[in-house]
């Protein structure tokens, strides 16, 4: 899958530049644990961004992921605390429900030719609404397995990571395999490049599109599980607006929003860039946290424009 | 929803009735009528209107008054969607506009800057936002959702930065007129909506602008080749949408007598898109209906009001809303209609 755009590389360079400058200005920023914390604090976002990558590569968009995440935390908390289910069963059920939710939206998008934007928007309302149906208050989780997952520190390169960060990295490895080394991944890229051509080539367009949204729903539910390890609670207001962070991470990671180009691994660099911005602002201490949003907006702008200019340049070269 | 109605119309109704059933405003109006019917039965005194101090009071007035900012946002969104675009930065523009106005007026009983200047500055900020969106979409050719996503993220951040995340309370009385005043016995907000509607409807009907916008929505390339200035048209619709959002922002902050950069206009863009879709405008661009969008906004507000008044927990609101969106989407889908008629034939 040769990509004519170098933006994934730009992201990595940007990441190292930000860390380098940050390290020079704020001593202590470059300690191993600070870097590992980027991964620990953003494990759920990485998993969301992985699912979003596939959706965007296929030329779609999924606005429901933040709400599905919240719904997953809510269902987990309710089943654990009120219904007293065993945690393993809860996690398994939540993951299946997430995949079904996503798959259902995918089926509506494909079979009824509805716009992904509006279907996943309705999905976003639905999942958030279902959260509040379960409870309008936050439910604290005190299950021993969840506590253990929240507090375990796995030694790594002189620092430590959380089990959640490890799960997110495993998920990333699986996604890279799925995206770049399987027929499913090739199908996703082909559909994102041109759905008509993919159909004419005899690729299983229907199955792939439904699976892409199911995968995104699964990732959102998994992110919800990781988030409930992190927060030890279920709440309908959890992760509001995270779908936009995930989209931003994917775009900053160099994936083209029109679909068809990009790398699944870009999700990691995108998430790390977002995390680094937050860490830099936290280290500075004088900047208010609202700057995070403005800087993310500015970065989105720069990346979109660069992508666009390069696409135009490529089109002009192709025409010449 | 419409398929059986249309089939029945074909079978036994007069041509006039059939034409009525096929009218693009029939479905939104029917939905509104059903909601009002539910209210008539379930909520005592729903249609009761009374006059106190020369002002009209009642549930209906209340609904229309609360729907005013949404109507404004939906009117702007209609034109954007008609050009096959989408603007998800509406909520951020609402927050920014309200914040700018509140900060310039200040927290004292006297305005720091004359009211008209503060409002002009807020509208100016909104117009700049629209110009930014429009240029990104038309000149750079970014997808509308991406182009407006940038402002959606950064705009609210900017508003929060201006106020430091605090709620700015306004005590200057004249500012409250826009959102809470009365004109000719009716809430002033309605006059504002009526004026905006009249201006835009005249522009669409009496000039070729409406036709041009439809042409861009149906096929941008063909429209450009036919000699339309597509770029300026696209910039115009985004600027107009942002102006509507800015006005909605002023109205909201005037109504709540403060500017809340964190929550003002949150998810308003989604409600506006929903109102436009409910009103029968297709997200695929081309045909649009301004009246439909206003009715769509009324449907949403009536639905919210009904849910609250029936004593249903407000939490259900979002679930109901999402089910309505799914149903509306399905009823617009050609594939679904085909499947439905096939099932009926079998």
UniProtKB/TrEMBL annotation, chain A:
It is a multi-pass membrane protein. The chain crosses the membrane at residues 6-26, 38-57, 63-83, 90-111, 117-135, 156-178, 210-232, 244-264, 290-311. Pfam families: BPD_transp_2. It is found in: Cell membrane. Its main location: membrane. CDD domains: TM_PBP1_transp_AraH_like (cd06579). It comes from the Bacteria. Keywords: Cell membrane, Membrane, Transmembrane, Transmembrane helix. This is Sugar ABC transporter permease YjfF. It comes from Massilia antarctica.
TrEMBL record, chain B:
The chain crosses the membrane at residues 29-51, 63-82, 88-108, 115-135, 141-163, 175-202, 208-226, 233-252, 264-283, 290-310. The keyword RNA-binding does not apply. It is found in: Cell membrane. This is ABC transporter permease. It comes from Massilia antarctica. Keywords: Cell membrane, Membrane, Transmembrane, Transmembrane helix. It comes from the Bacteria. It is a multi-pass membrane protein.
């Amino acid at each position: 899958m040769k990509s004519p755009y170098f933006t994934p590389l730009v992201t990595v360079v940007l990441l190292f530049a930000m860390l380098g400058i940050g390290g020079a200005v704020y001593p202590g920023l470059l300690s191993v644990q600070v870097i590992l914390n980027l991964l620990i604090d953003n494990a759920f976002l990485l998993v969301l961004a992985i699912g979003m990558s596939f959706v965007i590569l296929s030329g779609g968009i999924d606005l429901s992921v933040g709400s599905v995440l919240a719904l997953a935390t809510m269902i987990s908390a309710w089943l654990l605390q009120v219904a007293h289910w065993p945690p393993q069963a809860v996690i398994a059920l939540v993951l299946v429900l997430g995949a079904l939710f996503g798959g259902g939206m995918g089926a509506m998008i494909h079979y009824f030719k509805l716009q992904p934007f509006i279907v996943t928007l309705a999905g976003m309302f639905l999942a958030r609404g279902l959260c509040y149906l379960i409870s309008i208050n936050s439910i604290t989780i005190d299950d021993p397995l969840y506590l253990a997952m929240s507090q375990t520190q796995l030694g790594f390169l002189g620092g430590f990571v959380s089990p959640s960060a490890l799960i997110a990295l495993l998920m990333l490895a699986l996604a890279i395999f799925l995206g770049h080394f399987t027929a499913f991944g090739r199908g996703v890229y082909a559909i994102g490049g041109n759905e008509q051509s993919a159909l004419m080539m005899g690729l299983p367009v229907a199955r792939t599109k439904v699976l892409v949204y199911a995968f995104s729903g699964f990732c959102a539910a998994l992110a919800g599980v990781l988030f409930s390890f992190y927060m030890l609670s279920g709440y309908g207001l959890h992760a509001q607006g995270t779908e936009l962070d995930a989209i931003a991470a994917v775009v900053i990671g160099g994936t083209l929003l029109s679909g068809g180009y990009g790398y699944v691994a870009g999700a990691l660099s995108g998430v790390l860039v977002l995390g680094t911005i937050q860490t830099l602002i936290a280290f500075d201490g004088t900047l208010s946290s609202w700057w995070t949003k403005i800087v993310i907006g500015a970065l989105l702008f720069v990346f979109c424009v660069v992508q666009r200019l390069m696409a135009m340049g490529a089109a002009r070269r192709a025409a010449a | 929803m419409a398929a059986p109605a249309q089939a029945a119309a074909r079978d036994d109704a007069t041509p006039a009735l059939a034409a009525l059933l096929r009218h693009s405003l029939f479905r939104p109006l029917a939905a509104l009528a059903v909601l009002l019917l539910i209210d008539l039965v379930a909520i005592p005194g729903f249609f009761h209107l009374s006059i106190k101090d020369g002002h009209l009071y009642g549930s209906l007035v209340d609904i229309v008054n609360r729907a005013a900012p949404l109507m404004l946002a939906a009117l702007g969104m209609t034109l954007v969607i008609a050009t096959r675009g989408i603007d998800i930065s509406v909520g951020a523009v609402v927050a920014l506009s309200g914040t700018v106005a509140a900060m310039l007026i200040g927290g004292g009983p006297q305005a720091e800057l004359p009211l008209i200047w503060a409002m002009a500055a807020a509208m100016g900020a909104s117009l700049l936002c629209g110009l930014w969106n429009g240029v990104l979409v038309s000149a750079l050719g970014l997808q509308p959702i991406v182009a407006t996503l940038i402002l959606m993220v950064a705009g609210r951040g900017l508003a929060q930065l201006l106020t430091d995340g605090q709620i700015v309370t306004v005590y200057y009385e004249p500012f409250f007129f826009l959102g809470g005043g009365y004109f000719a016995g009716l809430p002033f907000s309605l006059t504002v909506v009526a004026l905006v509607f009249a201006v835009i409807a005249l522009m669409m009907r009496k000039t070729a602008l409406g036709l041009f916008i439809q042409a861009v929505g149906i096929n941008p390339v063909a429209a450009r080749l036919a000699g339309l200035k597509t770029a300026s048209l696209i910039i115009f619709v985004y600027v107009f949408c942002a102006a509507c959002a800015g006005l909605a922002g002023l109205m909201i902050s005037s109504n709540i007598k403060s500017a809340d950069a964190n929550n003002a206009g949150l998810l308003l863009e989604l409600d506006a898109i929903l109102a436009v879709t409910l009103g029968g405008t297709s997200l695929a661009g081309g045909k649009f209906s301004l009246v439909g969008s206003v009715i769509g906004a009324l449907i949403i507000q009536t639905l919210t009001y009904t849910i609250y008044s029936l004593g249903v927990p407000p939490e259900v609101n979002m679930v109901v809303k999402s089910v309505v969106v799914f149903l509306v989407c399905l009823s617009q889908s050609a594939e679904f209609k085909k499947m439905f008629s096939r099932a009926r034939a079998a």
